[in-house]
Design brief:
six-stranded mixed beta sheet; binds adenosine-5'-triphosphate; elongated; about 35% strand; Rossmann fold; 9 helices; 2 domains
Length: about 375
Amino acid sequence: MTSAFLKLDRVTKRFRNVIAVDKASLDVGKGELLVLLGPSGCGKTTTLRIIAGLETPDEGRVYIDGVDVTDMEPGDRDVSMVFQDYALYPHMSVFDNIAFPLTVKRGKLRLSRRDIEERVLKVAKMLRIEELLDRKPPQLSGGQQQRVALARALVREPKVWLMDEPLSNLDALVRMQVRAELKKLQKDLGITTVYVTHDQIEALTLADRIAVMNKGRILQVGSPKDVYENPEHVFVATFIGAPPMNILECEATKEIIECPGFSKPLPPSTRGLQGKLYVGIRPEHIEIVSISEVTKEDVVEARVYVVEPLGSEYIVNVVLGGEIVKVRTSRELLLSPGDTVYLKINWSKASVFDFESGRSLGKLLKALVS
Ligand code: ATP
């Protein structure tokens, strides 16, 4: 009935008066790694638990491999899930915890003890916990427990892996190492995966596609490049990118668009734009130029607020009509707070969003350049 390997069809879940998931539809292809990205409380975990069968949706259906699993018990769905709170067995060794999904189904999976040992060692090595196999969970740090929980999910090859912030407790270096290993393993084995995170860097680096959620709704599903370059909603624009897209509250009249600190004439092709709207400009699409290089009509005057060095680049915060705007540059410009600067904006890359709905109205107006 569907070509998607995992499909959510208008799934809704309410907890008393809270709508945790609101008509969420999603198609995940076989072998795809889809990241569910959104802020705390937006409904990511609930969506994952619905796929796992730990919550029953109030409305909508869930399909795995063409089968409607909405009313199926979690154990019958052939999914493995890494929980946010690890849920390890405290009295079992790390080895036995990781081996557990294999030992309970040993007969069915036709695995010898040796096969199990090999698999456990492989995944433990990958997650850098092979020295901990004889310990018990209470003797481990939070980050180590999290890796054991992840290992327990990865040791089996189910139809779907479900992962809820599985790297959140690891320090930055280990997180980067494990993230790369996880991506490699997922690609090697081709296991369809839904991965929940609120960390947009994690989403951009791991995902084949990202589904951005806010307030129970899926606002956009697309490749990392797509959600970054063509956000369909102002929320997506501000949630993805570090620093995020600059959003200016502007007003369009028939012939002019007025933004904080500047205004521009609107060419005839854009006269449909009327009233308040948001204009979004990524920090890398603004250039600080010397006034001798350009004419004053092409640039916007602003004042330096503060400069943040990031090693290989700088984020220059400038004040534009009372608003702080962030500019990304690789040049060391030796600017001080209060200096006047001239900004050249790449209008062909800018986005416009409806003021009421937040929905994208498309790329701003290549024509504005002229
Ligand atoms: P986080 O990143 O903080 O884990 P999340 O995006 O995973 O957040 P959910 O845990 O899915 O969000 O929660 C979505 C909404 O549903 C929240 O408002 C939450 O308070 C509410 N909620 C979740 N589970 C329950 C429950 N069992 N009973 C009542 N409300 C719940």
